[in-house]
Amino acid sequence: MTDEPVRKDSEIRRLSSSMGCGHKDDKASLASSQIASFSPQPHRPPSAPASKEVWKKGGRMFSILLAVHLALLACTLVSSGAFEKIAVHDYDVFFLLTVLMLIVITWIIFYLANTSRYPDAIPCRDSHAGPIWLRGGLILFAIFSLVMDVFKIGYYSSFYSCLSAIKIIYPIVQAIFVVVQTYFLWMSAKDCVHVHLNVTRCGLMLTLTTNLAVWMSAVTDESVHKAHSKFRKNVTEELFRWLLKVGMRSSSADECNCNSQICQVFNNGYFWLYPFNIEYSLFASAMVYVMWKNVGRFIDHHSHHIHRLKFRLFQRTFFVGIVLGLIILVSGLGVLILYEVQINSSTESSKKSQALSMYYIFNIVCLGLMSLVCIGGSVIYRFDKRDMDRHKNPTRTLDVALLMGSALGQYAISYYSIVAIVASTPRDAVSALNLTYALLMIAQHTFQNIFIIEGLHRQPPKEDHRRDSHQKDLYGLTFANINAVSLRVPDSGSTLGSTTASGAEGIHPSDFIRSLTAPKMNWRRKLLREISMFLLLSNIILWIMPAFGARPQFDNDTELNFYGDSMWPAIVDICLPFGIFYRMHAVASLLEVYIMS
Question: Could you tell me the residue range of the domain that residue 143 belongs to?
Fold first, then answer.
């Protein structure tokens, strides 16, 4: 009976306060309740700006269509410029690439200016994108690309009177493009941009397409140069000039005289530096793609864990992986030098077979060890107690896609070799070694991909889960035998005096407790680090050998006789660049696995 009138009075008071007739306290309580009702999610600050972009997939689709059309146009011009009978010259390709690079340079300047002008342009950054080792590798390749451009400028300047001006303008613009893009990726690789979303997506896709077009042009130019070098060894100069006129594409510089010593140095130098420029374009394309995925993205800092890992090369290791990897690396360099000397200087078939046998034996041993080590690493992962990282990570998704996609190039070459060797007769020792090499190449790529992908999906090492519960119990305890003085850890976490009795600096309690509760590295993690370092160094030498001329696919007659002089070189020229890129990308991924172990 007494509760009902009280309830009615409170209802009347709330009604009157909502109509503006109540007391100030009632108005204040109503205002606070309204504010609380409109802001019940304190942990979702980024959700409001997300509604500004009405159709995210539409902006992405438009930028993808732009990239596809530009890529097809560039691919058409580059492939057409590789043949003499098609009325597309190399300076037409250089003109298109120069225009694309100038547009990209302009857009990068526009991007940097706009993101610096708007304070809320980049509300968050992706900690996984653009790791320091990837950006460091990009700078290394950029330096060699700049040296290559200097050699190109010096080479084309030696006979500028008989060349088109675009042949000299192109390396100058490319050098500026490399400098601007490297600075852009170093500074902005982690950005999650939230201004000019569609313009940013189109600009990033234009940058990606330009890098791929430069990559296609470099691969084609290098393949044509190696084809010319092979023909020059087997035919006279007069016959080579006749072949150029009949149908084999030549660079316009081949029609000019390069008789001076400095001109020859520039000519040979920039072709030796092409592998670095090729890798630079692919590295930049991968980083730009991650930036494109992060446009308009909000990162939940509660689920997006930031792991600040330290790279300790000479700590927590047995040095077994480093020593074995260095042995493989040095031995591979020796094999590469001997192979190049014997193949290029001698025309005897016995010397050629000896060089091929040496090359295949080294690779069989190396690939066999790598396969066994990868299998052992995968077995160790079965006993690893770390959880799988299932958070959204565009960088890791791209790494896995590039590993699986680029491995297809070497798979194709290996399967073509297997079919040619099995179907050909007679079979000699070199054919048996070649068959074993092809089979081990397939096995090694498969096992290494499994090991790397599983390592990338493991969470980095963290402290024991029980540490959080036990750490609180450590406060208030007395620790003896520390600088011969009893230490009392206070609740406030203040420092323990400025100096000790011996004159040393004071010890912070949090640092001391962290050192006591830090987990020890177990044997599984140590073995994984040894495996990662061995695979990293082995992949480096397997990248160096084909990138700098050791290509037995062109020197072994089995595949050439089976598929013909036109089909087999085309297969190798298309697939081998992907295999070379696979090795360098595997090096970057294995470095990440090493640091996360």
Answer: 59-241+258-299
